[in-house]
Amino acid sequence: MIQSDLAPLLRAAAAPLLAAVAACAASEDKQILAEIERGDIVVTANGPATPLPATATYDYAPGSTIVLADNRFDSFAIEGELRGALERQLRERGFGRGPRSRAQFLLGYRVASADSAVLTDAVEDFGMRPRFQSQDRPLQRGALLLVLSDAQTRDVVWRGAIEGAIDPTHTEKERRDRIETAVALLLDRL
To answer: Three-state SS for 79?
Structure first.
């Protein structure tokens, strides 16, 4: 009896909090979109040459990591936030994570916190064969690189990068929101 009396009160109390959380996320989305428009954040994507299936399985490629040369980054937190965002966004697009032995695709990721990270090196670290021209270029600090390959052939079928979206000066909440938005922006180009 008491629980049913409290339920409407709890829903009413939770509504402003949920609205505030949604507003913060929308605010961060707007911020990133404004930064893209100004050229502060650069989004690039190549491929796929043929349409991907509506549903597919993937696993993470070996060598997927956060390259840390900056102790302001909490690599474990960022990696967890990134994998969480990837799994949510890929699930929305019909991709489910499965064991590597049965995966159709391998997904490699790299967050570069050093200006010395190079795109081709990252792709090769994933054990993938580059397919696109001009892959041998430096990645800016804060760049998020995603590379999707055929799990059997290891040929790259899609590649996307967003440079400038992840910065150690952001708060934990800003970073989490920006990672979610960056992943969505990249995967929208898949």
So the answer is: helix
pLDDT digit string, tens, across residues 125-151: 788 877 655 556 666 777 888 989 999
Render pLDDT for 28-85 as a digit per residue (tens, 0 to 9): 677 767 766 765 566 677 777 678 888 999 999 988 877 655 666 677 888 889 999 9
Q: Are the C-beta atoms of 79 and 66 separated by less than 8 Å?
A: yes
DSSP conformation letters of 1-45: -HHHHHHHHHHHHHHHHHHHHHHHHHHHHHHHHHHHHHTSSEEEE
DSSP code, position 155: B
The pLDDT score that the predictor gives to residue 14 is 43
pTM for the model stands at 0.74
The pLDDT, as a whole number, for residue 168 is 66
Neighbouring-strand partners of residue 58: 97, 105
**What is the CA angle 88-148-82, rounded to 5?**
35
Give me the residue label for tokens 């697009």: 93
Round to whole Å and give the CA distance between 158 and 46: 6
Tell me, rounded to whole angstroms, the distance of Cα 127 from its chain centroid. 19
DSSP structural state of residue 49: S
What region, left, alpha or beta, does residue 57 occupy, with left being phi > 0 and alpha being psi -120 to 50 degrees?
beta
d(CA 26, CA 41): 17
